[in-house]
Specification:
This protein is about 25% helix and about 35% strand. With about 425 residues, it is of the alpha+beta class. The relative contact order is 0.17.
């Protein structure tokens, strides 16, 4: 048997063998790293397998950032909405007041010096001068006495008093006028003096007696109790005028009448326009509550053959407060009226009829009828209503409106639309009138 020589080559104990050759440390480290990489690879493969099998997605941090941005944006929108809501918070309140239409024909009276329970009037008085130039037809010596109509009053007794022809009447300046025929002044009735009209003439010719409207005493009663109880006043429609002494250019009657007609037409229009412009928003001047009078003034020569005809026009009237007049009328017409603020909106459509001839320039009282179809509208305090609503919620409106009994209903519009309460600032609450 042939023996393998290599088999007999056994190294002595402790000798070197391929099994006993030590592995270098660097190689060991490489092997360990390789093992770790292999394990990691296997773990990744297993994770992929599980993810695909169960549809598991790893968390993505960028989505959290995205939702955080959305949240900040939403918060910004909310803050902006709050700011806008505060800046533009307002309300509009449409108010329907109580309204009543009624036919009326009531008798009322107004006083110049009225007490708390009386209807008052304010006197209106406006004067203007107009003129027209015409051709003269010649010259003449003129001696003319001023004249006019006065109203004589008896506040002495209930007995009548006869005044004879040429009875004197004196102005505060001492100018004397006389009546050219006897008159009888009726006695007074209660507190109302008796009265009668008469024409007076100046004692002398001349322009100084053109005094217009004046008060008069009767000098013949001086030293007698009747001196203060009998008196006279110019009739507003016939002031004292027309006096002249000297050479005057003559104008034909036709030319004078035409000139006067033109002057009076123009003056009437100007006086009415000025009277209307002078009225406050609460005052009214009815068509039949004023008087327009014209007084001839001395004519003036212009050049050699022309004359300027002049007249003074005056409008006098009773100015009445719309609010006060409406309340007095409501007391007579509206059964359920309890002295609330009220206004007749169409006062201009009603008819004013005086009970007797009017002299607004001198009257201390006037009795009249007011008739027509009146539209009564109850008033309310807009400022108080806005202040009452300021800061209140919609739910509080019914209790607030009960404090304004002259209001029928209210419609409310808020801005922005989602607000459920009124602005705290009453200035941001607009009150408007609605028709029923």
């Amino acid at each position: 048997m042939v023996r393998n020589k290599m088999m007999d080559m056994v190294p002595p104990e402790g000798g070197r063998s391929i099994r006993n050759i030590p592995i270098p440390e660097s190689k060991q480290r490489r092997e360990k790293q390789e093992e770790r990489r292999e394990v990691a690879r296997e773990v990744r493969e297993e994770f992929v397998r599980i993810r695909e099998e169960h549809d598991v997605r790893p968390p993505r941090t960028w989505k959290w950032k995205k939702w955080y941005g959305y949240a900040l944006g939403a918060l910004g929108v909310v803050v902006l909405a709050v700011v806008v809501s505060s800046m533009f918070h307002s309300a509009q309140v449409s108010v329907t007041p109580r309204i009543l239409t009624a036919d009326m024909n009531v008798s009322l009276s107004a006083k110049k010096s009225a007490g708390a329970a009386d209807l008052a009037f304010s006197p209106l008085s406006i004067k203007k001068i107009g003129s027209v130039t015409v051709k003269a037809s010649g010259e003449e010596q003129v001696e003319k006495k001023a004249s006019g109509t006065i109203v004589i009053y008896n506040n002495y007794s209930s007995a009548s008093q006869r005044l004879i022809k040429n009875t004197r009447f004196q102005t505060p300046e001492g100018l004397i006028f006389r009546i050219d025929q006897s008159v009888t002044v009726p006695g007074k009735k209660g507190d109302i003096p008796g009265s009668v009209e008469a024409v007076v003439y100046a004692d002398e010719a001349g322009e100084k007696y053109n005094v217009g409207l004046k008060d008069f005493t009767i000098p013949g009663f001086k030293g007698d109790p009747r001196h203060t109880a009998f008196y006279a006043k110019s009739k507003p429609s016939s002031p004292i005028a027309g006096g002249f002494s000297g050479v005057m250019k003559v104008v034909s009657d036709a030319d004078r009448k035409a000139a006067q007609a033109e002057i009076e037409k123009n003056l009437r229009a100007e006086l009415l326009k000025e009277a209307e412009a002078s009225l406050s928003s609460d005052m009214i001047l009815f068509d039949n509550a004023y008087l327009i009078t014209f007084t001839a003034l001395p004519q003036e020569a212009v050049g050699n053959d022309q004359v300027t005809i002049k007249e003074e026009g005056m409008i006098s009237g009773y100015l009445l407060s719309k609010k006060a007049l409406s309340m007095f009328a409501a007391r007579a017409v509206v059964k359920e009226y309890e002295n609330e603020p009220i206004l007749i909106e169409n006062l201009e459509d009603l008819t004013f009829t005086a009970k007797k001839e009017i002299y607004p320039a001198t009257d201390t009282s006037v009795s009249f009828a007011l008739s027509g179809q009146a539209r009564f509208v109850w008033a309310y305090d807009e400022k108080a209503l806005a202040e009452g609503l300021a800061g209140a919620s919609r739910d509080e409106v019914p209790s607030i409106i009960r404090g304004f009994p002259t209001i029928d209903k209210m419609d409310i519009s808020m801005s922005p639309f989602w607000r459920r309460s009124f602005p705290d600032d009453a200035a941001r609450i607009e009150i408007i009138r609605a028709e029923p």
